[in-house]
Amino acid sequence: MQKTTTPFLPIGFSWAFAFLLLLSASSCKTTEKSAVRERTDFTKNWSFALGENAGAKVANFNDTQWRKLNLPHDWSIEGKFDEKHPASYNGGALPGGTGWYRKAFTLDAKDKDKLFYIDFDGVYTNSEVWVNGQYLGKRPNGYISFRYDLTPYLKFGPEQNVVAVKVDNSQQPNSRWYSGSGIYRNVWLVKTSPVHVDQWGTFVTTPQVSEQSASVAITTQVRNARQQAGNITLRTLVYDAQGREVAKASSEKVALKTGQANALTEVKQNLTVSNPTLWSVEQPYLYRVVTLVEQNGKVVDNYETPLGIRTFNFDAQKGFTLNGKSMKINGVCNHHDLGALGAAVNVRALERQLEIMKNMGVNGIRTSHNPPTPELLDLCDKMGFIVMDESFDMWKKEKTKFDYSHAWDEWHKRDLEDFIKRDRNHPSVFIWSIGNEIPEQWAPEGTTIAKELVNIVKSLDTTRPVTVGINEPTPNNTIYKSGALDLFGFNYHHQDFEKFPKTFPGQKFIATETVSALMTRGHYDMPADSIRRWPKRWDIPFHDGNKDLTVSAYDNVSTPWGSTHEETWKLIKKHAYLSGQYIWTGFDYLGEPTPYVWPARSSYFGIVDLAGFPKDVYYMYQSEWTNKPVLHVFPHWNWQAGQTVDVKAYYNNAEEVELFLNGKSQGVRKKQGDDLHVMWRLPFQPGTLKAVSRANGKEVLTKEIKTAGGAARIVLEADRTQIVANGKDLSFVTVKILDKDGNLVPRADNLVHFRIDGKAVLAGVDNGLQTSLESFKANHRKAFNGLCLAILQAQEEAGTVKLTATSEGLEPATIILHLK
Ligand code: GAL
């Protein structure tokens, strides 16, 4: 078990010494004798069974026949696609049901005076937890993080303890997208002294920030579990990114609250950080706040909080500024699934998604439509994203039959409070969202509930604006009319953007959700410049003849409520009062296929497909949002002789692009006005298409696309060939089907088989095709439009791993990974 421990610190220690101890402790893998707080990864060696298993809550239940696994775990993603599953294709057409998890563990006899908590980052859904047969509680919300105190029911020494968790995702549909099922996020065992910093017990803000100094205000809640009388000393230290102490505060002789078990003592402290390095999306500089609780001359607890020092503002005319500089929020909405891995959280998979987004120029993430896994926010802190952190997709009025609306009355206050407390120290969180497209916006309760929720948020954090994604932005909207929102958040309605300042005078605007264009990677329907906007019926694919349910990737298909990517970006770009947007969506996700025609089972909205392969419009944004030189030319060059083909190019850092077909110029094109691409229409001839971008008459970039021959060989490309042998790390291996000359075969759909030699497992396979009913957990996958993906997961042994990919009639390929 990997543990984070903090050693005992004697009274009178030097601050520098304390820091050295803390540093060495943070890399510790085992418990130290002197440890005061331990947070142990509690994800290994669980037993799992599907079904009712009511007796499984009892400690001595016989689970020897159950499957052994490590968490995080999502049982739905292991299932078979079937349109008859009650989740329907909106939920990803995968099975739900009820599942049980059990884990046995022992505790050291010397720890019997300690407290033990179990922390769940999220369980989908309706979880109930027992320890040693004792019922601890339930949590209907599948996205919320929660804790139980195990202490009163534990055994110490050789006797075993057993935690049992029932997960009930049987009542479906309960979600408008794929939810996953199970303990799909991490679980932690937290050991503390009886006097310790409460769960999410610090709140760190920066009331005043200038180039010269930042004031840091820290409120700490200390829990007194056993009504101990007496005083504590609370010390707070701030370290910069290099580990240097930059500020400290000490509150002596603070009387502990007593009178009831678990009484909380609040301590407020103020510090100053001189010459602070500010947190920004380009340089997400992080400080670390370390809280030490001392009792009777001994350090009894330590606790860490991230700190990013930044100022920001939303302005009704000028939009968003970060650290005094104007910038657009160029964000994307994402759901929580990780494609072939399902909902099961994996930090590297999250990081890869964010890397792909960052590389496109994205600087904002909306956690649509629910609390994210905590690791996502840790990554956004480190990588520099402006997060719109969202709590609910519905309030009291249901959207799907068995959704959270049924738990609303009993749970919403607790869930919202816990969500804010958990996330309010993340510098990447800039906006709280109390809901998405809430049906109450058309009813009087829209006003009352909005006011109630905003009050809850403000009681815990006044440093960030609160918004809602409203999908009918009119002055009569009851949520808007509540007057409770700081930011006017609206979904879609790009046709109305220019009217907004008049219709909603004085409001600060953020486009909480935009676009909802549709695309299948590598599929093109012409003409490229005619926009299809969802004809007549909801179940009709968009271009005639697309019986295979593919949708054109020219950025020429959108939902009727949405727009093409270019349409919305042109408007957001033009108007300073629009602070930015969160595009629906960065990645394709499981569920909500549009068109709603079986076997479509995942969404078409992503700028990047489910496997992580960019669609063409990715490069439109890259050309606009980054300074990287871009020249992206598409489509592929395998068409019928004589067919008229539209060739589009996204480019930047140049004035013009010239296109050549087999050496013959097809003309020079320049973007005019607010154009975001250039286009040529030409009769197809096999051969070489070459584009050259130029600035001041000088070549900037060239791109060539050749007509591919038949599929001849496989090529494997790993995103990382060296990974950590920690049982979790991943290598994403792209599989390309090439002709004999090395050209990607644009419509290749060869079935590829995978074999692994060495200590890694195949965690998932995918190809990004929205209608594929192949299993994500198989050891083979058909390519789609020339590509597929194999995700390798390290086991816990260092060494080399060989992945071999074979396919009938093709030259096979191997790749070696190094596990360290
Ligand atoms: C929005 C909604 C999203 C998603 C999207 C699809 O209205 O907020 O959750 O359903 O439509 O276009």
Task: Provide an overview of this structure.
- The chain has five domains: 3-35 and 194-307, Immunoglobulin-like; 40-192, Jelly Rolls; 312-517 and 559-604, Glycosidases (TIM Barrel); 631-706, Sandwich (Immunoglobulin-like); 713-819, Immunoglobulin-like (Sandwich).
- Helix 4 packs parallel to helix 5 (445-460).
- The radius of gyration is 28 Å and the shape is globular.
- An eight-stranded parallel β-sheet has the order 26-25-24-23-22-31-28-27. Strands 4-3-5-10-7-8 form a six-stranded antiparallel β-sheet, with no helix packed on it.
- It is 12% helix and 37% strand.
- By secondary structure, the protein is mainly beta.
- The chain is built from nine helices and 47 strands.
- The two termini are 18 Å apart.
- Residues 176, 436-437, 471, 491, 513, 516, 559, 584, 592 line the site of beta-D-galactopyranose (GAL).
- Keywords: Glycosidase, Hydrolase, Signal.
- InterPro entries: Beta-gal/glucu_dom_sf, DUF4982, Galactose-bd-like_sf, GalB-like, GH, GH2_Domain-Containing, Glyco_hydro2_dom5, Glyco_hydro_2.
- One of its GO terms (biological process) is carbohydrate metabolic process.
Overview in brief:
The protein is mainly β.
Just give the CATH class of the largest domain: Alpha Beta
CATH architectural grouping of the largest domain? Alpha-Beta Barrel
Class computed from helices, strands and strand pairing? mainly beta
CATH superfamily membership of the largest domain: Glycosidases
Rough shape? globular
Q: Whole-Å distance between the termini?
A: 18 Å
Low-confidence stretches: 1-34
Residue share in β-strands: 35-45%
Looking at the chains present, what oligomeric state does this protein adopt?
A: single chain
- With helices defined by DSSP (H or I, 4 residues minimum), what is the helix count? 9
Strand segment tally: 47
Largest sheet: 8 strands, parallel
**Domains counted in the coordinates: how many?**
5
Calculate Rg over CA atoms. Answer: 28 Å
Helical residue percent?
Answer: 10-25%
Strand order of the largest sheet: 26-25-24-23-22-31-28-27
Protein name: Beta-galactosidase GalB
Domain Glycoside hydrolase family 2 catalytic: 318-585
Signal peptide: 1-18
Domain Glycoside hydrolase family: 714-815
